[in-house]
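Subject: Sanity check before I submit

Could someone independently write out the structure tokens for this chain? I want to compare against mine line by line before I put it in a report. The sequence has 498 residues.
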Amino acid sequence: MDFPPEYWHMVTLTSSGRRKVRENKDALNGLQEKSMLQVGRQFKDGELTKRELQTYFLKASLADTDLAQKLRLCLRCWLSHQISHACDNLATRFGDRYGFTASDLWPFVLDDCGSLNPDYQSFAERILKWYDPTKISLGAWAHRIINSDSEINRFLLDKGLYRVSDWAILNDTPTDRLIRIFPFLGEVPLQKKVNLLEAYHKVYRYDRIRQQQKIGQTRRCSEPTPQQLRKIGGGAAPNVVLEKLHELAGELRKHRIEVRTRMPIRHSLDTLEDLEYQLPTDKDAISDLPQDEFLQRYRTYFLNSLGKTIKSVTLSYVDTYQSRKSSKGKGQLFLTGLRLFYCQKLSMKAIAQELGLNSQVQVTRLLQLKQYRAKIQKAWSYDLKAYVKDEALQHINQKKLEEISDLIEGLITEETESVISEAAAEAQSPIHRNHKSLFAHCLCTELTSAIKFTSLQLTGLAGGRVGRERYHSLPPASPNGENSLEFKPRFECLPKKS
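---
Independent answer below. Compare away.
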């Protein structure tokens, strides 16, 4: 075979979300046809470049022939490797800092089932649809599409990663908006920020516009030159001005993330090393709380809040699916898929058959379980933090609450992440799946009671070959929050009154 193996091996996802490279027989058969042998030899001998070969495949794939479909499948196979590498690259660059791995990104983009005539548009097909070989290479185009994908960027934004340079943020932030961004800042420090941003616009914007007019195209915002920094700072040292610009851009970045995710930034616990020694003494805030009564109320609210959050996030997914023209009706499939996976414990392959989908990859992309659980954890944690702080203010003043605020947030985050991690571990098991976690229990309770399938006219599986009795295998949670799935809140580790 004179063609590289990437043209007939496709990177796909297994039912457990793992990456696997599979040989695609249809693609291989296309490359082995007589008319392609000469093309293969020319490529091997260097008479055809990779870009010329891919252009040949792309043009040939537009014909209405069996070979045309196979050659397009070859390009999809090759793109699956590029997509996989792009996810690895994002995880390598940002994963450790923002808490995600390449496997978190795969379900968004590795959705090609590898069939010759798929009845849906895969991510690789999206790349090919708008590709112009006269302007850019296919690999560069693929990375550009991946980096601009709305779902990936939404996921990264939820993680706190806003992929815009400091210079672009400063360039497109109006100075009059600083008053709204920093409402509690004093007049003097606010005016300093306004002056700095105005000077940046006056120097940097002017030079950038001149550069665009000269070269006739827009380029990314690059770091200001030392000459520009001196002009911006009115003669101050460039390194001092650069540091101030980075600081202002960082504050603006945090504000944008808060606004776009509708969640406040969670400060790193790495900065709280000395917090343990700043906690109130036995005569202070925590010990004054009637802890036994509080913990009883917290246990109840902990479960009720999880159920309420599951319902809210689930219905938001349904609304999103129903509002998109391209995914009309998928809201019903999403609810049914959740029910089959968590309540009836079916595999992704079995769910695909029940939902009428071609592959388990489509189910993975439909449910987006990692992102779904992450959104629930984030909103749930936010709700619990607000509840605990409101409760605390009934017994302590605002100053004392601020002293222990970071500790409270850390404990709640640890508690909610523990529940979600347990659910994630359950979901990873490809066989003998048995969802007994608190998350699965609450989800099935909400799917049974609060989320009304009839309002969406779901046909579901009520009359299907999966029995209704399996759907009701988990008992609902009692109204008062008591549940056989007990948990011990981490607030019990806080110091009690001696």
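---
OP: Matches mine. For the report I'm noting this point. The two ends are 78 Å apart (CA to CA).
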